């Protein structure tokens, strides 16, 4: 990010794409029917300490939805309520530039782990057959951490979608986040082996159904492609600062057992 602005520059996008396509230090955790999930291979940790930052990468080979439609699905907040199974609440707060906005998102975590939320700056770029969306956590005075949720940190999270034909694409999701709190190992494993593939399948299905849904719901309104349609209040990016993980309270949830497992064993 350039010295005078918090908004991502060309370098941030290029670095993100490079991570999406890189094979180094990634450990495959799931590989089934056109979908792969990797987690970053971290240095060896002593004892049961899971590293604070969790990096996960999911890749899907899509043969029946265009890259443009998948990009629209990720942006369309109205449509998200229809397909995102883990969402509690999501709304846009302000726009920062023609291709950047500020948003709030909270999601359901596997029980008995507390639910999480984030306030993120999201920025996007469309180039020929490549679509990129990145986000990272920022501080906004009007949206401080809430007592009923754990404020997580997105260090750099996003999507890289590359068109492979008029109705097909490669879809990559990469998350580099500090979920805050010392999470037990099963949560990290469940996230990579169960939850990530499930959400990816939902996103894919959302893409298949989007063109028909959009026909009925303001078909020409796509502010993410046509900034002049954006009705959000304008905000100066200089009012925002990057949310660092160490300024937030840590919650220890290492001793939490998977609710599913404890039901099975009871």
UniProtKB/TrEMBL annotation:
<dbReference type="GO" id="GO:0005829">
    <property type="term" value="C:cytosol"/>
</dbReference>
<dbReference type="Pfam" id="PF01852">
    <property type="entry name" value="START"/>
</dbReference>
<keyword id="KW-0597">Phosphoprotein</keyword>
<protein>
    <recommendedName>
        <fullName>START domain-containing protein 10</fullName>
    </recommendedName>
</protein>
<keyword id="KW-0969">Cilium</keyword>
<keyword id="KW-0963">Cytoplasm</keyword>
<dbReference type="GO" id="GO:0008289">
    <property type="term" value="F:lipid binding"/>
</dbReference>
<keyword id="KW-0007">Acetylation</keyword>
<dbReference type="InterPro" id="IPR051213">
    <property type="entry name" value="START_lipid_transfer"/>
</dbReference>
<dbReference type="InterPro" id="IPR041951">
    <property type="entry name" value="STARD10_START"/>
</dbReference>
<dbReference type="GO" id="GO:0031514">
    <property type="term" value="C:motile cilium"/>
</dbReference>
<dbReference type="InterPro" id="IPR002913">
    <property type="entry name" value="START_lipid-bd_dom"/>
</dbReference>
<dbReference type="InterPro" id="IPR023393">
    <property type="entry name" value="START-like_dom_sf"/>
</dbReference>
<keyword id="KW-0472">Membrane</keyword>
<keyword id="KW-0446">Lipid-binding</keyword>
<keyword id="KW-0282">Flagellum</keyword>
<dbReference type="GO" id="GO:0006869">
    <property type="term" value="P:lipid transport"/>
</dbReference>
<feature type="region of interest" description="Disordered">
    <location>
        <begin position="210"/>
        <end position="266"/>
    </location>
</feature>
<keyword id="KW-0813">Transport</keyword>
<dbReference type="GO" id="GO:0016020">
    <property type="term" value="C:membrane"/>
</dbReference>
<feature type="domain" description="START">
    <location>
        <begin position="22"/>
        <end position="212"/>
    </location>
</feature>
<keyword id="KW-0966">Cell projection</keyword>
<keyword id="KW-0445">Lipid transport</keyword>
């Amino acid at each position: 990010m350039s010295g005078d602005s918090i908004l991502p520059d060309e370098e941030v996008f290029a670095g993100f794409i490079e991570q999406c396509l890189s094979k180094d230090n990634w450990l495959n955790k799931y590989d089934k029917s056109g979908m792969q999930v990797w987690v970053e291979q971290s240095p060896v940790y002593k004892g049961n300490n899971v590293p604070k930052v969790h990096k996960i990468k999911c890749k899907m080979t899509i043969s029946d939805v265009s890259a443009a439609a998948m990009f629209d699905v990720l942006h369309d907040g109205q449509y998200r309520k229809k397909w995102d199974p883990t969402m509690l609440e999501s709304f846009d707060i302000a726009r920062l530039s023609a291709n950047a906005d500020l948003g709030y998102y909270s999601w359901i975590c596997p029980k008995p782990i507390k639910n999480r939320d984030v306030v993120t700056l999201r920025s996007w770029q469309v180039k020929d057959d490549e679509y990129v969306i990145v986000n990272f956590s920022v501080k906004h005075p009007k949206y401080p951490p809430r007592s009923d949720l754990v404020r997580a940190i997105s260090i750099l999270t996003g999507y890289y979608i590359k068109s492979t034909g008029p109705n097909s694409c490669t879809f990559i999701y990469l998350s580099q986040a500090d979920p805050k709190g010392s999470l037990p190992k099963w949560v990290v494993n469940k996230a990579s082996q169960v939850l990530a593939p499930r959400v990816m399948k939902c996103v894919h299905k959302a893409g298949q159904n989007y063109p028909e849904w959009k026909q009925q719901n303001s078909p020409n309104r796509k502010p993410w492609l046509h900034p002049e349609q954006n009705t959000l209040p304008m905000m100066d990016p200089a009012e925002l600062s990057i949310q660092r993980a160490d300024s937030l309270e840590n919650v220890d949830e290492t001793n939490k057992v998977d609710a599913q497992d404890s039901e099975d064993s009871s």
